[in-house]
Please model this.
Amino acid sequence: MRAMAPTTTFPAAADASEIAGPVPIIRLQQVTKIFYAEDVETHALADIDLEIRPGDYVAVAGPSGCGKSTLLSILGLLDTPTEGRYWLNGQPVEGLSFKERAHARNRSIGFIFQSFNLIGDLSVAENVELPLTYRGMRPAERRPRVQAALDRVGMSHRAKHLPGQLSGGQQQRVAVARAVVGEPSILLCDEPTGNLDSKNGALVMDLLRELHEAGSTLCMVTHDPRYAGRAQRTIHLFDGRLVEGISDQETSSTVESYRRPTS
Ligand SMILES: Nc1ncnc2c1ncn2[C@@H]1O[C@H](COP(=O)(O)OP(=O)(O)O)[C@@H](O)[C@H]1O
Ligand SMILES: [Mg+2]
Model:
């Protein structure tokens, strides 16, 4: 049993566990996003608290329009919260200049989008090389990394092809190579199988699982419950709110505590 200490100004248990664990890669506190258009305010996100730690595989689920992509854009420094705080690798991102944000994005974030977003007139290898080129890395250093990333996704044999010469599944594998080539802290995937048939979708999901097993941290948006089930933890968004932000383990213990007889 814990010794009885004065309870008045003692920090909450949540703070103690933060000190104990590794620094979260992502930490959001009370994040809100409001889009203002003519006469219309859209509350896309409200009061989001979220932590993602190294090695996590988090799925973000919820119906269309509930704020999943908005959340991912904020996590990926493509957009800013209206209110609330965001720490990336322990650093608050609010004070970063435009240039510092671009730098942090390039170093820490790997993106995989539904629509692949490869550049059509660059070869497969050049597409994968791009994040390293932006970083100012020398060509001699870039080449082996590009090769290794393409090997990892099984696409080295198409290095000189243009994206338009590949199937959707192959294009998404190239996009995965581009996302991992710079060894980012976290991979953000927005419905990565949304434009793929089920066979290619399954191949891309297998690839993401392999990356996770090799140590990558993933946050993946999906509206497909079959794929959400592959993550360690699923968070559910509904109308911009997190309706369940706790692990399955915590959920079951919470349920247990409700089941306990109260008399
Ligand atoms: N740039 C924007 N301007 C205005 N409203 C937006 C913008 N982006 C998203 N929204 C609105 O915010 C809400 C959440 O959108 P989104 O994050 O794309 O949802 P999801 O990815 O879950 O389908 C929706 O109501 C959408 O119409
Ligand atoms: Mg979306």
The longest strand covers residues 40-52. The CA atoms of residues 131 and 137 lie 9 Å apart. Residues 198-213 form the longest helix (16 residues).
